[in-house]
Specification:
Blueprint (H helix, E strand, L loop, with lengths): L3 H5 L2 H5 L14 H7 L2 H6 L8 E3 L8 H17 L4 E3 L5 H15 L3 H4 L13 E4 L13 E8 L16 H26 L6 H5 L2 H4 L1 E8 L21 E4 L5 E8 L5
Parallel strand pairs: 1-2
Antiparallel strand pairs: 3-4, 4-5, 5-7, 6-7
Helix pairs in contact: 6-8
Length: 263
């Protein structure tokens, strides 16, 4: 049931209310904000180290030397950084654009309509449309709304809470999940071999074909009147085996591969 209380709890509702000062629970400690800095400006700098870019074009090359060079670069990025920027990964720009547009179209819907897909964190139903609850001693909140759901395997999905609007949401997201699941197998295979294990070992350890879940979270960041004081997502450690972020201007879709089965 859509209530005034649920609508009022959304960051989007707060952002569109005309406020010029954000509530104190959204204001982050000064030391936290200083420590973050401007990662976008840092990335533009020619000084210092940068997140490695791994070109997967030659990951399955018939030339052994070319193939091994690509795989070694991926392994090194995983060991040294734990994060990397993948290019030529095999998922088409057209499909990724469809997923982005579908996610954006959902968040363009009126809040009242999005509330039809709301989750219920109090009862343990974490899938659906929601806003982050305070999870630290200070009771601070993040400046974001989101949509979260399991997208793979198909028999673990609950399509009843998937957006029916836009029309392409289910189709595009399902296709994307299948492609990403295949990429997850490829990456874990390379990492397994890099550790001196049999190629399917890592995937087996995190659930294998049947238990490894692919969960998708779309983060939406409404315009903030005091962006220098707030954070969309605070520093955290993902519990998933792999996380696949893809960014846009005001929203951020990310998929994670894990064995977590909360509904």
């Amino acid at each position: 049931m859509v209530t005034a209380a649920s609508i009022g709890s959304r960051v989007e509702s707060l952002a569109s209310s005309g406020i010029s000062t954000i509530p104190k629970e959204y204001v982050r400690p000064k030391e936290e904000l200083i420590s973050i800095g401007d990662i976008f400006e840092d990335e533009k700098s020619t000084e210092g180290s940068h997140v490695p870019t791994i070109d997967l074009k030659e990951i399955d090359s018939e030339d052994i030397k070319v193939r091994e060079k690509c795989r070694e670069e991926l392994k090194k990025a995983a060991v040294d950084w734990g994060v990397m920027h993948l290019v030529n990964h095999g998922i088409s720009d057209e499909l990724m654009d469809r997923v982005r547009k579908a996610g954006q179209a959902f968040f363009d819907l009126p809040i009242e309509q999005k509330e039809n897909y709301a989750n219920d964190q109090a009862s343990g139903k974490i899938q659906g449309y929601g806003s982050k609850l305070a999870n630290n001693a200070s009771g601070q909140l993040e400046w974001e709304d989101y949509f979260f759901h399991c997208v793979y395997p198909e028999d673990k999905r609950d399509l009843s809470i998937w957006p029916q609007t836009p029309a392409d949401y289910i189709v595009a997201t399902s296709e994307y999940a299948k492609e990403l699941r295949g990429l997850a197998t490829k990456i874990m295979t390379i990492l397994s071999l890099g550790l001196g294990l049999e190629e399917g070992r890592l995937e087996k350890e995190v659930g294998g074909l049947e238990e490894l879940l692919l969960q998708m979270k779309i983060n939406y960041y409404p315009k903030c009147p005091q962006p220098e004081l707030a954070l969309g997502v605070e520093a955290h450690t993902d519990v998933s085996a792999l996380t696949w972020p893809s960014s846009s201007t005001t929203w951020f879709p990310a998929c994670s591969s894990s064995t977590k089965t909360n509904g």
